[in-house]
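A.,

Following up on our hallway conversation. Structure tokens first:
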């Protein structure tokens, strides 16, 4: 199972920002993100590309979920302060940031995506290529916004609880030549079908979600990730919990 534990926490003193922000407004309906930090792209495996969860998501009700593995809840005031900080730092930034002249050329690195839901209810996002590696060539506001979100993750790692959900995303990657003895396909878990290029994925819930979580423990140290379908095909199975706003075929999308 691809579950990455985060390490980041809420910045103490958020500059006296007004807590009456869009965070409160978003809480009226289904859970909606009001601030996000995630990575996209980069040179990663096909399975990682499909399973990579947002680094940090803050919802309008104060729920913080980090790497789909840790969670905590902020007060209304804290939630408002985080949103206000990101609104301040991201306002006026282009949809895709460009480093200052003289920045070295970097390739195969993920983009950092920072997002905040404004008072108009719309989510605004800024994509920053290689932010960590080219930090000195980007506006300080982008670094500040990222730090606010990473501080949340540190705090969740220190005082939060484990995150679990009733819905999970399952990914199967062909492994006919992999070493090791595969196990029989987990009962109740759908088997790959259709075109697999390069991976097969499906969102499941209920008994199927419980079955995959039981069959593939967290991490790869158990050596039990190889499974054979009824037709004799061998796959590496991975999964992660879905977040409240992530769409699943079994349930309507939220937010």
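Then the amino acids I'd put at each of the 255 positions:
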């Amino acid at each position: 199972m691809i579950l990455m534990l985060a390490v980041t926490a809420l910045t103490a003193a958020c500059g006296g920002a007004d807590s009456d922000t869009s965070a409160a407004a978003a809480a009226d309906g289904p859970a909606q993100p009001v601030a996000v930090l995630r990575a996209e792209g980069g040179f990663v495996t096909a399975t990682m590309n499909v399973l990579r969860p947002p680094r940090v998501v803050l919802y309008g009700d104060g729920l913080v979920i980090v790497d789909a593995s840790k969670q905590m809840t902020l007060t209304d005031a804290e939630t408002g302060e985080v949103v206000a900080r990101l609104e301040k730092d991201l306002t006026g930034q282009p949809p895709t940031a460009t480093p200052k002249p003289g920045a070295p050329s970097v390739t195969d690195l993920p983009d950092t995506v920072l997002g905040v839901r404004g008072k108009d209810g719309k989510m605004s996002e800024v994509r920053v290529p290689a932010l960590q590696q080219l930090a000195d060539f980007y506006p300080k506001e982008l670094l500040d916004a990222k730090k606010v979100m990473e501080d949340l993750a540190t705090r969740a790692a220190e005082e939060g609880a484990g995150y679990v959900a009733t819905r999970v995303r399952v990914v199967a990657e062909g492994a006919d030549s992999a070493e090791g003895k595969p196990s029989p396909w987990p009962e109740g878990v759908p088997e790959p079908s259709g075109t697999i290029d390069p991976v097969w994925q499906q969102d499941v819930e209920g008994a199927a979600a419980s079955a995959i979580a039981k069959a593939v423990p967290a991490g790869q140290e158990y050596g039990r990730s190889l499974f054979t379908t009824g037709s004799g095909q061998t796959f590496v199975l991975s999964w992660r919990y879905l977040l409240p706003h992530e769409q699943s075929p079994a349930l309507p999308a939220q937010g």
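The CA atoms of residues 94 and 208 lie 42 Å apart. Curious whether your intuition agrees with the design.

B.
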